[in-house]
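User: I'll paste a sequence; please echo it back and then give the predicted structure.

Assistant: Echoing your sequence first, then the prediction.
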Amino acid sequence: MSVNEAPANVRLIGGEMLLWSDMSGIGGVTEWRGAALELIRRLVPVDGRVLLVGPHPQPLVDDVVARAGEAAALLRSFPDARDLGERHPGLEVFCGRLEVLDVDEPYDLVLALDGLLRTHSAEAPASAWSESLAALAELTRPGGRMVLGVRNDLGIDRFIEARPADRECGDDQWAPHGFDPSYPGGPAALDLGLESAGLSLQRCYAAYPDRQAPRSLLSRESLAFELPEALTFPLSARESDRMLVADPLSLTRLVFRHGLGEELAPLWLAVATRPPLTSDPVHPVELPLGLIEEGQALYELTAGGTRRLPGGEEQPVPAGRVVEEILVEACAREDVKTVRELLSELACWLEAGGDASAATDSLVYDGERFAAVNPPAAPATPPEPRVVLCRILWRFAVRLLAAGHHHPWPWPLEADQLALTLCGMAERPCDQGDLDLARKLDAELGQPAELGEHAPTYRDLLGARDRLADQLTSALARIARLETKLSYRERELVRAKAKLRRTQRKATAYRRTLGYRLSRRLARPRKVARRVIRLLSG
């Protein structure tokens, strides 16, 4: 097939971009993972019609096509439409602008998880967000549903990323974003926009930790309550392929602590319905309160806790503070006593049968007992508690130093040395051999503490600069003290040499005197006589 030829299932509707691809753009396509896939699976009608609007990740498209009775897709990029049509011959692919799409029959489910910004074309002026939403609503049948992704212009990732994906002067920004007054500036504006388009909001989710790869969806109902730290702490992991301004962990923790989880979410995922007619059947769907992806596991947030999917039993969310946050706070205050007491209790918990796969970022402590939060599968052979403790403290040391947090120990300490110091504070001394076993255990569990190469945050750079400035000031002061001492010693040495030269001159003058020369000559016969007497007497 020629490069410019399209498969039979691809239809050009107008406004198509023949030489442009959204899949390889600067911003890329949001990598919706297990949480979004689980939500979409619950919404896809088995015998209904589904429309995918805009670019979506390939696993999501493949799953929707496999589950839906009839599926179609709308893309503005001709190369993307051609590739999608070749991959799914039974999928009807429309290529062009959203506003010119005309279908004979609306769809039971319309998915626009990428939003509406990439439904426009460079061949025509971009429509307002409200106009695009109205056009999208017209494609939804009465009683049908629509899932719309909306990026938050004031999301937490905007305060973290030094170079956001949609920075100014990008090739895909022929219509600059931020000048559309109809674009929602918050959850309330989003609700009003959906209502104006004739849609009824069924549930709105806040996606975390970022817009590149969201792995958790938290509903508005769940965010109305104070979520336990065991849930909110893992939602801010650092990504290694971005340049950051600040540590995502501390800022995201503040967002949840101040009850701004929905207002400052990186993006929103709204599930809305079009009011049905009296004769239209409604497909009932029970939407989850939240979906959280942790590693390879997926958990559903329920009213009483969480349950692992599929088929897991409901488990209460453990109360208490995350151990890593307690330790970081104690290190910042140089509260060595609290660190020692907490680590001693952690060691006792491990020796009493605690989880061998836990870590400081997956443990909570309520003042009396420890509890693991969704830890990975335990190793096949249970390791010694001393090795488990060494692994936990080594992971904490790596994360503490990587984040640039203050601690009360000498600054030249590396992660290995700091881990051994912490083991000693827990009254469980470890050596280098235990540390090597701890690294092997960490690699076996599949959660490496040492991240790959990544650019440090801007605030980390400032902190490192301040630490280096303090170290340089201390070194310069020590050099000044040593130079003062060296100058004093040099003066003392000069005086000692001068005194030695005077003594040598006096000795030379004394050797030249008549009395010294006579005493030396008179002393020789006596020496000879003593030697003769010694020989004769011997």
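The two ends are 124 Å apart (CA to CA). The first strand starts at residue 10 and ends at 14.
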